[in-house]
Design brief:
Largest sheet of chain A: 3 strands, antiparallel
Helix content of chain A: 25-40%
Number of domains of chain A: 2
Shape of chain A: globular
CATH topology of the largest domain in chain A: GMP Synthetase, Chain A, domain 3
CATH architecture of the largest domain in chain A: 2-Layer Sandwich
Radius of gyration of chain A: 19 Å
Order of helices and strands of chain A: EEEHEHEHHE
Distance between the termini of chain A: 46 Å
Strand content of chain A: 25-35%
Number of helices of chain A: 4
Oligomer: homodimer
Strand order of the largest sheet of chain A: 1-2-3
Structural class of chain A: alpha+beta
Number of strands of chain A: 6
Chain lengths: 151, 151
């Protein structure tokens, strides 16, 4: 299989609300009232956590199938703290994003200890979102900035 | 302001579908048919791209306000390629996640060139999701794996 392309495109609807499209899905992003939004949708970093949890679900199930593990239930919770100072421009001491992330996985299965260890070792190595959050990713920025004054 | 905590919790509904909750919002993740899912919702990495675009929207608007820039319109598109080989376990030559990301921002504003340069320099430095995707983030895993055979 060759590489797969994923894309989201959308527009700023308000200062906090983004209306994006991924294929035939519309996804709205907003901020809670405490962060200046209208709380119409999950906020940006909540989508990051959800994408990460959703990715772990796919990979745990995929690898479990390979290892012939029967999953009875699988609960995934991800959380993290952000210091908003850099975002707000009041201090640049801490990084802008999550200082760290905590992944809690509660798996009920028929696997023995050794197989479970192998399962989660494989999951960490093969989960796309785990990779992009654990390791740096090159980002290319293309800014098309129309200046009305120059038109 | 002290640090802010964000969290998502949820369960595996199928091998590809995750039903998560962020505060009072339910967010469903699934995979397209081509990736073995039922295509009931955006897939994990589409949520990553959406969270990133939503975050850029917030920070562009925030910094523009500080710089007294009037935004007429703002379009944000983010895309990237993934080699699914590592996820599928068929090859470990490439990384698991996005090989790179491309951010296209189309801003229509009344800002001059110098101010726009300052705007986007600040946006890159202050956007939380940009930070977590550009730079490594420490991740703590807690695996609670019940083994039915041992009960």
């Amino acid at each position: 299989m060759s590489t797969l392309n994923f894309a989201v495109t959308g527009n700023s609807a308000t200062q906090t609300k983004y209306e994006g499209y991924a294929r035939h899905f519309k996804i709205t992003v907003d901020e809670p009232h405490a962060l200046g939004g209208n709380d119409d949708a999950p906020n940006p970093v909540e989508y990051i956590l959800t994408g990460y949890a959703g990715c772990l679900n796919v990979v745990v199930n995929l690898v479990a199938k390979e290892l012939d593990i029967k999953i009875n239930s699988l609960k995934i919770e991800i959380s993290g703290d952000i210091d908003p100072a850099r975002l707000l421009g009041t201090s640049f001491n801490n990084r802008a994003g999550f200082l760290s992330l905590k992944v809690d996985i509660d798996l009920d299965s028929d696997a023995d200890e050794e197989t479970k260890t192998l399962l989660f070792k494989q999951v960490k190595e093969r989960c796309p979102v785990n990779d992009n959050l654990s390791n740096p990713t090159p980002i290319e920025y293309n800014i098309f900035a129309t200046n009305l004054n120059l038109n």
